[in-house]
Structure formats: structure tokens, C-alpha cells
Amino acid sequence: MKTLGKLFSAIWFIAFALFFAQSFVPSDKKPELVNEYANHFLHFIEAFLSSYWFIIIFFTMSIFVVVQMGKDSGWMDLSDHFSRNYVTPKNSKFIRGNGYIGNISHNGILRVYVDELGIYLKVIFFFNIGHKPLMIPWEKISYLQPEQTLVSKKTPKILKKLATSFSQRKYMQIQLLDIPDQYIVIQWDETFNHFIPPLIRVGK
Question: Parallel, antiparallel, or unpaired: how do β-strands 201-202 and 141-147 relate?
Fold first, then answer.
């Protein structure tokens, strides 16, 4: 599927590049073949955008991107550990939040809730494909690291410090016992602190 997507993208890029390049050629110097290509390209675009194929391909590619996002971020691996016993807590109020799962930003689509059992993570409806809701029990967490800004794991320290001076939100990095290499940083609400068990270390 990934190879097919790359092939489709390459063909589309070449076709659009040729159309874009021909627009810089004066009309009186364009070969008839070039004019025919430009006219056929425009006709194809207009027909495609007004057809059902556009809707089908758009949603297919969107699903592909969301599923790939779940794989690349590590969310799918997390779901193998923390989705099986997930039950939405009664009277829970998930906060809208930003976060990084792996090296993938989940800004604007992440929902977070915390109670005495653990940390709950889910995403907005469309992104549920490849992103099953997670419930991370406190006993599966080795420590929590408060963060002043939201950046990827690969962000240079100097840029991280610079971003910190402009950030007004609080974030928390979650270090897991069974998956120590999984990077998780989520937006944090001060009310969540009341649920952190005394045995959980906060800060390195």
C-alpha cells in the first residue's frame, strides 16, 4: 500500500510539474502538443474534482495517512498493552489537549483524562482508526517528567529552551516501565496532580 501511494504521488507530481512548467512558456512559442497537454490536464482536473472518484480517493488516502500515523507514532504498539481493558470512566471530562506520541504531533486531536486508576488517552472521532483509546495504569509508569513546552524528542536542546520561554501551558512526559523507548508527552492539567500515587516519581 505504501509503495502504491508513493507511485501515485510521483505520477501526480510529474504531471503537475509539467503543467506548471508550460505556463512559463509564451503562448506563441508553445508547440501544439504542449497546448493539448495543458487543455487535457485542466479538463481532467475539473472532471476529477466533480466526480465521486475524488471523494473515494480523498477518504482512502486520509484513512491511509491516519493508520500510518498510528504506526509511526507507536500508538498501535501502545494499544497492544493498554487498550484491551479500556473502559471510559463514568462522569469523566476529557480535556482537549496537545501532545507528542513518538515523533508524531497530536496537536488538537488528543483528549486526556486522569483518575486514581491511571491516565486515559484518546483522539477525536476520525482519528480512531489506528488509534484505539488507551488506559495506562499507574503501576505501568516508571516516572513522570514535567515539561514547560511541547516539542519532539529530536528537537535540539537550544530550541527547546527557546520555546519554553514562550510557552504558557504545562505538559507531562510519561515514562513507561514496559516500553521505555516510547516517547509520550501530553498536555497536563494541575487537577491531575491529585491523582498521582505517592510511589510515582515526578521529575528525574
Answer: parallel
d(CA 12, CA 203): 49
Q: Please give the Cα distance from 28 to 83 (Å, whole number).
A: 64
pLDDT tens digits, the chain, 204 residues: what are they? 557 667 777 877 887 788 778 787 787 777 888 788 888 888 888 887 888 888 888 888 888 889 999 999 999 999 999 988 788 888 888 998 899 999 999 999 999 999 999 999 999 988 888 899 999 999 999 999 998 888 777 777 676 666 665 667 889 999 999 999 999 999 999 999 999 999 899 986
Question: CA dist 194 to 71, 144, 172, Å?
Answer: 33, 14, 14
Integer CA distances (angstroms), 54 to 7, 47, 78, in order: 18, 9, 34
138/150 Cα distance (integer angstroms): 22
Instruction: Kindly tell me the burial class for residue 89, based on how many C-beta atoms sit within 10 Å of its own C-beta (0-12, 13-18, 19 or more).
Output: middle
Q: Which amino acid, 155? A: T
187 dihedral zone (left: phi>0; alpha: psi -120 to 50; beta): beta
**Which residues make Cβ contacts (< 8 Å) with residue 79, sequence separation at least 6?**
131, 132, 134
Helix (H) or strand (E) holding 187: strand 184-187
Q: Do residues 144 and 156 make contact, with C-beta atoms less than 8 angstroms apart? A: no
